[in-house]
Structure formats: structure tokens, C-alpha cells
Design goal:
four-stranded antiparallel beta sheet, six-stranded antiparallel beta sheet, alpha+beta, 15 strands
């Protein structure tokens, strides 16, 4: 599949970052989503670059900033231009990811200035670029009907917990159509149609080949069905079928 205009634009930005890093020592992107991170890493590897690092504020962050650097610099967590804006409110109130994102986006900020949004009990944190921290902290005093107190000088206290549903079974092979059939509980014929229609991705890139071999740790998604991860390949039955465990993101 040919790259989209957005993919081409991102590749051009990464190329510019590589050039700038050789002059300045290091350069940072805005927040990238999971697919953009995968695309950026693919581009850098194709150019045999090892001088890069992604960080989004905590270990399992989904939206992350890319740092490209020269041979004499290695970025620490504190070097990345991001901050946590913390919102405190009564524990009797419940705010959602949508509520927080809507409040921040109402400030007319670009989406790439906003990282992960982490929801806790009576407290939520929004990861933002340093350049917009004062705007977010200074403008938001109410989210929906919930009054909030803002702290823009707080460490990242929370981490997002991803929930999964475990799916176990056996497959005849690790071909994409076979694994997808088990994960989605659909016939092989239907999963072949899904794959050939361009509705499926592996590691955030479209895969239209039903014979594509997936491996442990691969993340795959299907439009309308959600996102999954091949968590474990645990053995072979006497009849030669492969035991696998798939996690569905909830």
C-alpha cells in the first residue's frame, strides 16, 4: 500500500529532525500516536539510525515524544519537553477521558500538543507539551459541570492501566487469517475477506496478505472489532495445532 500524504509528511519531518540533530545535538517532536511512533521508528531503522528515543511521561504511555540525537547526547526523562497538568476534584464526581480531552481541546490547541490523559479517583492528569502547560493550567477551572483545582507543578503521579480480555485457543498456523479467525471467533472465510478489504493492521501498518505470519508480541487491529495483542505462543498439540493466547484491549 502506498504511503498516505500524512505518512509522507511525517517521514519528511523525521528526516529534518535527523539533519537538525547533527547541528544542535538533539531535537524533539510533538506528541506522536502509536502508529506515528511505529512509522517513525521504521523510517529511522531504514536509515540505520540508532540515536533516537521515545518517551511519553511514563513507561507505558501510548502517545510519546520522539527525540533524535547525535552520538554525544543521550536524553534523560527530564530532558523531554513535557509536563503533567493535574486536576483535583471531589471523589464523588467521575470524569472520563472524553471529558478531559474535550476541555483541553476547547482551548484550540493542536492534538499533537497533548499526550496521554490519565484518570484517577478524584484526580486526573493530562500530559502536555511544556509550551502549552500555562495555557491548560491557566484556563481550565471547570470540566463539564465539575469544578477542578489545577496543579501544574506536580510530578506524574498516575499511570494508565490498560484492561484486557484474554482469549485462548489453538490455530493451525501463525498465518494472520488463522490467528484473526480465532481472536474474532469468525470463520476463516470471513477473516480473509476482512484482511483483503484493507480493514486490518499489524503493528499499526495495513496488512492485506492473509498468509502474513504474526509473531508473539505483535499488535493487530481490525476496523469495527478493536485492538488485540498476540501475547503468548505456548505449545503444540498432538495434532500439530498451536496453542496461543490473545489479549483484546478493553
Amino acid at each position: 500500500m502506498n504511503p498516505s500524504d500524512d505518512d509522507k509528511e511525517l517521514a519528511a519531518r523525521i528526516g529534518d529532525m535527523m539533519k537538525i540533530s547533527r547541528k544542535r545535538g538533539s531535537v524533539y517532536s510533538s506528541f506522536l500516536n502509536e502508529r506515528q511512533c511505529a512509522l517513525a521508528e521504521k523510517f529511522l531503522r531504514e536509515r540505520h539510525s540508532e540515536n533516537y528515543r521515545f518517551f511519553g511521561g511514563y513507561e507505558s504511555a501510548q502517545r510519546r515524544i520522539l527525540c533524535v540525537y547525535d552520538d554525544y547526547f543521550r536524553p534523560d526523562d527530564g530532558d523531554f519537553p513535557l509536563s503533567a497538568v493535574t486536576f483535583n476534584y471531589r471523589k464523588s464526581y467521575s470524569l472520563s477521558h472524553r471529558d478531559l480531552l474535550g476541555a483541553v481541546m476547547s482551548l484550540k490547541l493542536n492534538r499533537d500538543a497533548i499526550g496521554d490523559i490519565i484518570i484517577g479517583e478524584g484526580i486526573s492528569q493530562v500530559l502536555v507539551l511544556d509550551s502549552v502547560r500555562n495555557i491548560v493550567a491557566g484556563e481550565i477551572r471547570k470540566i463539564g459541570s465539575v469544578g477542578v483545582k489545577v496543579d501544574d507543578d506536580c510530578e506524574i503521579l498516575l499511570s494508565a492501566e490498560q484492561n484486557f480480555r484474554e482469549i485462548t485457543g489453538t490455530v493451525s498456523s501463525l498465518r494472520f487469517d488463522s490467528v484473526l479467525s480465532m481472536a474474532l471467533n469468525l470463520s476463516r472465510g470471513k477473516t480473509v475477506q476482512i484482511i483483503s478489504s484493507g480493514s486490518a493492521e499489524v503493528n499499526f501498518f495495513p496488512v492485506s496478505d492473509k498468509t502474513y505470519k504474526v509473531k508473539q508480541g505483535d499488535v493487530f487491529s481490525v476496523r469495527g472489532f478493536g485492538k488485540y495483542r498476540l501475547e503468548e505462543i505456548s505449545g503444540v498439540t498432538k495434532k500439530g495445532r498451536i496453542h496461543i493466547t490473545v489479549l483484546k484491549y478493553c
